[in-house]
Automatic annotation (TrEMBL):
<dbReference type="Pfam" id="PF07727">
    <property type="entry name" value="RVT_2"/>
</dbReference>
<protein>
    <recommendedName>
        <fullName>Reverse transcriptase Ty1/copia-type domain-containing protein</fullName>
    </recommendedName>
</protein>
<feature type="domain" description="Reverse transcriptase Ty1/copia-type">
    <location>
        <begin position="3"/>
        <end position="181"/>
    </location>
</feature>
<dbReference type="InterPro" id="IPR043502">
    <property type="entry name" value="DNA/RNA_pol_sf"/>
</dbReference>
<dbReference type="InterPro" id="IPR013103">
    <property type="entry name" value="RVT_2"/>
</dbReference>
Length: 388
């Protein structure tokens, strides 16, 4: 979904039109490259022991999604579009008249660009290949409510939040000001076992998708996600707190500014040994395109950091990887990022390690992938900045 947010941010900053199209019965368009047989469907008379030989993909067939994408990919490439390596569902075509971008998600697609003739030609080409529905200007995509004004693009999941609250029967309950209690520590054994663990898992799954536009609950949702295997009453109470916070902030949305400069800046942070069971640290980062927030993450480290400096340094490495990918994605979208991307961190020692190429006794045990930040610093991809 970072690709979607980035594409919308670029469209807002450049005042590009956003069109939406949908393919009817997309999976039925896929061509099978393997021999597949199926039992006769109910209502079809067939001799005993006979099976059907599939000529086209069907919904429910494991091969269907891939077959459909290959069919769509072939059709788009015939229209002189290029498949981008940053996202294989992203296709672009650049000419002297401008650039056209197509982003596919299963059977829904966004088309944008500054070459209106090529956009119209692409839409006509797709209609000749598939049964298409022109949805008009982009307003609703993958559960995201999208509205546009002169100030920019508003991306909201307000209806989705209301549905979650209704399902959890929390539409009239009290509210809270924060999604998680300060310094909350929970063990897997805290509380009583839940009689219905599926409810916990369903709510957490819905909350995970809500983080597409709500960065303010990313850490809290990541925290409760670690207990989905065997949730207990204390963990469920933490989920209910997130829901009460959402009820108080149901209209909060993601705004992508039309006046935003197309430059990147990133912020990273980490706790140290915050997990009471494993002593693993947690990384948090956010990346802006101008004033528009396009990428964020809260994730527990794979290994244990021996110091707060190491935890911060590894957080910078995770952020650096996202910066490198975003710079490539923006280049594919026709945005050239010149100069290094500033990476803000509140740990001076971690910054010194990242910006100093000499060997440090204190860092000899750090995994090699964490030194990715130092490599990209030397390549002038990013610059490190201390912030409080």
């Amino acid at each position: 979904m970072t690709t979607v947010r980035t594409l919308l941010a670029v469209a807002a900053a450049r005042n590009l039109p956003l069109h939406q199209m949908d393919v009817t019965n997309a999976f039925l368009h896929g061509d099978l490259t393997e021999v597949v047989y199926m039992a006769p469907p109910p209502g079809l008379s067939a001799p005993p022991g006979h099976v059907c030989h599939l000529r086209r993909a069907l919904y429910g067939l494991k091969l269907a999604p891939r077959a459909w994408f290959e069919r769509f990919r072939t059709a788009v490439l015939k229209a002189d579009f290029i498949e981008r390596q940053t996202n294989h569902a992203l296709f672009t075509r650049t000419s002297a008249q401008g650039c056209v971008i197509l982003l596919l998600y299963v059977d829904d697609m966004i088309i944008t660009g500054d070459d209106h003739v090529t956009i119209a030609s692409l839409q006509e080409h797709l209609r000749s290949q598939f049964e298409m529905k022109d949805m008009g200007p982009l307003r609703y995509f993958l559960g995201l409510e999208i509205s546009r004004s002169k100030r920019g693009i508003l991306v909201s999941q307000q209806k989705y939040i209301s549905d979650i609250l209704f399902m959890a029967a929390l539409t009239n309950n009290r509210t809270v000001d924060t999604p998680i209690e300060l310094n909350l520590k929970l063990l897997p054994t805290d509380g009583e076992p839940l009689s219905d663990v599926s409810r916990y898992r369903r709510l957490v799954r819905m909350l995970v998708y809500l983080t597409v536009t709500r960065s303010d609950i990313a850490y809290a949702v990541s925290f409760v996600s670690q207990f989905v295997q065997a949730p207990r009453s204390a963990h469920y109470a933490a989920v209910l707190r997130i829901l009460r916070y959402l009820r108080a902030s149901v209209s909060r949305s993601l705004f992508l500014f039309a006046t935003s400069p197309l430059t990147l800046r990133a912020f990273s942070d980490a706790d140290w040994a915050g997990d009471v069971m494993t002593c693993r640290s947690t990384t948090g980062f956010c990346i802006f395109l101008g004033d528009s927030l396009i990428s964020w993450r809260s994730k527990k480290h794979e290994s244990i950091a021996r110091s707060s400096i190491e935890a911060e340094y590894c957080a910078m490495a995770s952020t650096t990887a996202e910066i490198v990918w975003l710079r490539r994605l923006l280049r594919d979208l026709g945005v050239q990022i010149t100069g290094p991307t500033p990476l803000f961190c509140d740990n001076r020692s971690a910054i010194q390690i990242a910006s100093n190429p000499v060997f440090h006794e204190r860092t000899k045990h750090i995994e090699i992938d964490c030194h990715f930040t130092r490599q990209e610093f030397l390549a002038n991809t990013l610059s490190t900045v201390h912030c409080l």
